[in-house]
Amino acid sequence: MRSLSLARLTITLCMGLSAVLLILFSIFSDPSGRLTPDSAQYLSLADNILAGNGFTVPDDGRVIAEHEPFAIWPVGYPSAIAAVAWVFDLPVFAASKLLNIMLMLSTMLLISAGFGRGGFALSLVVLFGAYLEVFSFTWSEAPFLFLFVLAALITGKLLEHPRDTLDWRVVCLGVVVFCLFLFRYVGAPAVLMPAAVAVIDLYAGRRRRGLLALIVTGAVTGLILAYLLNNQSLTGHMTGIERVVAPESHTELLRQLSIAMIREVILPVAEWEPRDRLHLIWAGFQAVAGLVVVVWLVVCLRRDGSGKAFDPLTRTLLLTGSGYLILIVAIRWTAAFDGFGFRRFAPGSLLVFLGLFRGLMERVTAGAPAVEGFLTAIASASLVATAFSVFGQPLVLADAHDDRVNHYAPLSEGSILIFAGLHAPYLRSDLHIAAPNPFSSTGLPEDSESWQDFINSLDSSLPIFLDMTGIPASNDGHHPSVHSAIEGFEGNGIIQLR
Predict the structure, then answer these.
(1) For 243, which DSSP code?
(2) What tens digit of pLDDT does each residue of 425-476 get?
(3) Helical (H) or strand (E) element with 316
(4) Sign of the C-alpha dihedral, residues 164, 169, 172, 176?
(5) Residue 204 CA neighbour count, 13 Å, CB half
(6) What pLDDT is recorded for position 290?
(7) How far apart are CA 241 and CA 209, in angstroms?
């Protein structure tokens, strides 16, 4: 038994280190370094924190240029990046990648150590394609995944061991729940986790722990409200910006959701493309293997597992994961932001998968070896698929990064940059990044902000530059005068307008 546990540990460790290597290859083979526009904003705030500017970033340079509160996203993830950058004396970009790798390994370690029998195998779920993709990008979903698993684990353990004491784990749960909110606003409903512990304990007569959980719930709720009300007073909106109503029809949203859910189930590839033969092969393998294992386990479950109930941790994983997925679908159904996909689903789907596989291990006598073998095979397939996609690709990040640094180096400190490229916010976190407003009450480009009105609105005391690498497409909703004004400029450089 001891040698078997050591073998499982060795396999898990080797696969985890392989995932780290693949993540590094995917980062260095991507010219953008696995960044998206919100990634650049996180890095910008992290750099401003290190510069002593607090939780503020330069505004868009209108009228009188100054710093503004960072409120569209919570400050937790940029703060964590800044802390890693400070401790290891790294640029914020490198710090974000190191942080995410540490979070991935910590999530695997947490599952291995905290989930009991089968924990090593269950930790391999983290290596499925969708989650590898999340940890390779500078996205707040990375720490959110770790914290969500931790919160579910603490809640499950509290419910599994009912005792009427002032349990310190209740306070830990409150801290983790508040951190979930600090990393993503959608983490606010996680306050229902200590609330559930309070209700169950008080109903069962465990007054001391029940009252402590109730106090923790109230304290975390108060802190969340205080944070949102502070945003309201600083920006006029609780989450820093007016949220736009989803423009899609219910039919279109349902179509998008259906496709996204199918892709979420087809592991190990995060975003598979039917025209890509390799991805199609892996998706087909996953679908067939998954169907065979599920059918076999259902047969076993009907034979010898029907009288067993899931333990509190498994129920917590399934309920919280499903609740998150329902919540994120409901939010996207009413508000416009990124479409349905593995990034938005990842925290919920991870908990659901962990709950399902752990439940099968519990309820089916012969289920544990089959589930362990299945998870090992799928995680291995995920690593192989990722390796095929990144190995052999040129490592272009270093040269691309040097080019971008040289691109923005000539700009004077604190100047205004129009149509900045993706990387400007963190490479030059002192710049005021501006663009004409493409939105209007009528939705017509002719009624949006004109080029001259935009230029007149900028701080007249600062130099103004135009970044040709960030020029928008001609059909992006900007006023016709905007495109007329920039048509006369050529190249991909920086042009000084004033």
Answers:
(1) P
(2) 999 999 999 988 877 666 677 778 888 988 999 988 899 999 888 776 555 6
(3) helix 312-334
(4) negative
(5) 15
(6) 62
(7) 39
